[in-house]
């Protein structure tokens, strides 16, 4: 019995000694992690990288190049309101005539419309901006029977990019024009629309034949930029119809001769 107990004690002592040795070996040599990372597939970001990207702030959106301050739109609405009031001022009584000057209401309306249109033009120019709203307002006043208003609308049109629809509206408005100043400005503007050459020729030839004295004379003097080898014969035919000693005929003849000389046409 005593021998058996001694044997058990010896076995326990040996086991304890071996455990101490294994423990010291484990503490000095750390083992690799039991869980190994899955190899990355080509083109994939590591999971940790993706998490970092998710935490990064989204890039800020840049303002649009044509974005305008709210002040621009407030001023534009105020000017449009002023235009509407001026257009109706004779009906509302804001523009009134008097016994001394029956045309006072018309002149007051014209002044108010021109002032509002000029301010609107300056507003757009100061922001180097144009849009469909400006084109619509321009087209509305291109047909005004008030000469100064029509002239101001033409000035607005010249400030904008070529707009074929408004050019056609201008041609229609000039069909029976008597204002030489408007006609002179229109001749400059119409040079930007070569696609309308046929309609322009029809208008100019008609006015040379039957237009008002001042408007037709302005056309005769400013016709040269519109002359070409294709339409020259038509304008020469008009010249033959005109009384030779009139100012209109002399101006048209000078324009035709200058064109021929610059293009070496006999």
Tell how many strands the DSSP assignment holds. 0
Rg, rounded, reads: 44 Å
Order of helices and strands: HHHHHHHHHHHHH
Approximate strand percentage: under 5%
The oligomerization state is: single chain
Structural class by helix and strand composition: mainly alpha
Q: What share of the residues lie within helices?
A: 55-70%
DSSP summary: helix tally: 13
**Largest sheet report:** none
How far apart, in Å, are the first and last alpha carbons?
Answer: 150 Å
State the shape. flat
The pLDDT mean sits at 83
The low-confidence runs, each spanning 5 or more residues with pLDDT under 50, are 1-65
Keywords: Signal
Protein name: HEAT repeat domain-containing protein
Give a structural overview:
This is HEAT repeat domain-containing protein. This protein has 266 residues and is mainly alpha-helical. 66% of the residues lie in helices and 0% in strands. The chain has helices spanning 2-28, 47-55, 70-87, 89-92, 104-126, 132-142, 147-159, 164-173, 180-190, 197-210, 213-222, 232-241, 247-262. Helix 12 packs antiparallel against helix 13. The termini are far apart.
Question: What's the quick description here?
Answer:
The chain is 66% helix and 0% strand. It is mostly helical and 266 residues long. Helix 5 runs parallel beside helix 7.
Topology:
Blueprint: H1 2-28, H2 47-55, H3 70-87, H4 89-92, H5 104-126, H6 132-142, H7 147-159, H8 164-173, H9 180-190, H10 197-210, H11 213-222, H12 232-241, H13 247-262
Helix pairs in contact: 3-5, 5-7, 6-7, 6-8, 7-9, 9-11, 10-11, 11-13, 12-13
């Amino acid at each position: 019995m005593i021998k058996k107990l001694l044997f058990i004690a010896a076995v326990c002592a040996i086991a304890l000694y071996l455990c101490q040795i294994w423990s010291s070996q484990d503490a000095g040599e750390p083992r690799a992690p039991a869980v190994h990372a899955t190899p990355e597939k080509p083109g994939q970001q590591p999971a940790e990288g993706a998490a970092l990207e998710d935490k990064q702030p989204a890039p800020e959106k840049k303002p649009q190049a044509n974005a305008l301050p709210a002040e621009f739109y407030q001023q534009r609405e105020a000017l449009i309101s002023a235009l509407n009031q001026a257009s109706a001022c004779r009906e509302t009584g804001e523009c009134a005539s008097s016994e001394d000057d029956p045309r006072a209401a018309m002149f007051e309306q014209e002044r108010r419309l021109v002032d509002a249109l000029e301010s609107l033009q300056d507003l757009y120019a100061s922001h180097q901006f144009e849009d469909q709203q400006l084109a619509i307002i321009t087209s509305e006043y291109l047909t005004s029977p008030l000469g100064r208003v029509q002239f101001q609308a033409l000035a607005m049109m010249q400030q904008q990019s070529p707009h074929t629809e408004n050019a056609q509206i201008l041609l229609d408005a000039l069909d029976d024009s008597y204002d030489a100043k408007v006609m002179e400005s229109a001749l400059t503007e119409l040079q930007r629309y070569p696609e309308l050459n046929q309609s322009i020729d029809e208008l100019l030839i008609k006015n040379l034949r039957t237009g008002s004295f001042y408007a037709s004379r302005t056309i005769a003097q400013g016709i040269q930029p519109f002359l070409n080898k294709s339409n020259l014969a038509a304008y020469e035919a008009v010249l033959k119809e005109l009384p030779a000693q009139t100012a209109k005929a002399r101006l048209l003849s000078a324009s035709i001769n200058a064109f021929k000389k610059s293009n070496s046409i006999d």
